[in-house]
Amino acid sequence: MLRGQKPFGKRHAPIAEYRSREEEFKEGELSKRSERAFAIYLTPLCAAAIVIVLIFSPESRAFALEIASKTIEFGKDWILRGPLK
Fold it and tell me: pTM of the full predicted structure?
């Protein structure tokens, strides 16, 4: 690849990233170093998997209903009393 040319495509920032470094010392000097990086990117397949799990999980449906009921409750109060100051 020529200098100044960008690679094909663009990688977005990961939604979660884990990095670890292991160092081994012998006789006071560094003899071995290894670095590992693990990153999770939000791809369409990953997003679809999350949505499917949330749809079929009874706990997530109950949590969504709870959030919706609280939102409706706050919305009614806000409409009846006007915007909070």
Answer: 0.36
